[in-house]
Specification:
With 158 residues, the chain is of the alpha+beta class. The chain contains one helix and eight strands. The chain has one helix at 2-27; strands spanning 34-35, 39-45, 55-64, 69-79, 85-94, 103-107, 115-135, 138-156. Strands 1, 4, 5, 7 and 8 form a five-stranded mixed β-sheet that branches. A three-stranded antiparallel β-sheet has the order 2-3-6, with no helix packed on it. It starts with a helix and ends with a strand.
Amino acid sequence: MNQMKQKIMRSLLSGFACCALLAAFTSCEEKDFSSHMPVYSGIVLDKDVIVPGDSVTFTAKQSTPGKLINGTNYTWTIKDSHDSTLYTVTQNVIYDYDPSDPVFGYRIPADARPGTYTVSFSAYFKYSGQGTVVTGGGASSGATYGTYQNSIDFKVGN
């Protein structure tokens, strides 16, 4: 009878140990508070042929969304073939509330000279979590912001 009590006690202890182990693994799930800026695949235009007077829309396409980002500034600049700045605009968003692809619309002036124009896009992301600094094949935490820049040329013809 004593042996049977010991078997029952071992079974109960094994059951409790399994339950405790299972609870430890499920309740101690680590939360990831790392901030990551989005990864962009480039800037796309909504038209292939552009003439003076046309409205054109530029979109900075994200291939991977960002995470835990607070205040964000997007700056769009258009320059003509003589490197003269025609227009600059800055858009301010809270990325986590509006993670959509940044979009910029512009009407080419009716008197624009034919040629190659450049639209530049830059983004400045303020991290709200623990940012990651990526350098030379390694990563460390502590970044407070991330930046991205890109540009695309387009032709305006008659």
